[in-house]
Write a structure and sequence with these properties.
The chain is mostly helical. Helices cover 81% and strands 0% of the residues. It has one domain. It is built from five helices and no strands. The chain is elongated and about 115 Å long. It starts with a helix and ends with a helix.
């Protein structure tokens, strides 16, 4: 009767009975053993916390000097990207100029071979383009 009443109250509170002790293998321990286990667990956690704090301090000591380098490298990449566009535009402009010049020089190519003054600037310039 008492168990039924307790089960009704537990159900209202959202509580359930634990697993059977035969299935879990759990054993009762004395208060002294429990406190000893609790102290050991706390000591292990504190030691782990100290180790993690040391690791964190080391990582912070590595990060602080690296920040200016990251900023500098970011600026360099930004400048290279900006300059790349300008340089590619200039290369395209030079290619178009060379194509235009080649087109205009096609009619002179035969005449230049027979030109009596083969050492003139124009002939040397034309030969360097072909």
């Amino acid at each position: 009767m008492y168990h039924d009443a307790a089960a009704g109250v537990n159900k209202k509170l959202g509580l359930e009975r634990g697993d059977n002790i035969n299935l879990t293998g759990a054993r009762n321990r004395t208060s002294e053993k429990y406190w000893q286990w609790l102290r050991e667990s706390c000591n292990k956690l504190e030691n782990k916390m100290v180790e993690n704090m040391e690791s964190l301090d080391y990582l912070n000591s590595e990060i602080i000097p690296a920040q200016p380098r990251v900023i500098g490298l970011s600026k360099m990449v930004e400048n290279l990207r900006t300059n790349r566009g300008d340089i590619l535009a200039e290369i395209e402009m030079l290619r178009e100029a060379k194509t235009t010049l080649d087109f205009h020089l096609q009619g002179y190519a035969v005449d230049m071979e027979n030109f009596p003054y083969s050492r003139c600037f124009f002939c040397c310039f034309h030969q360097s383009l072909t």
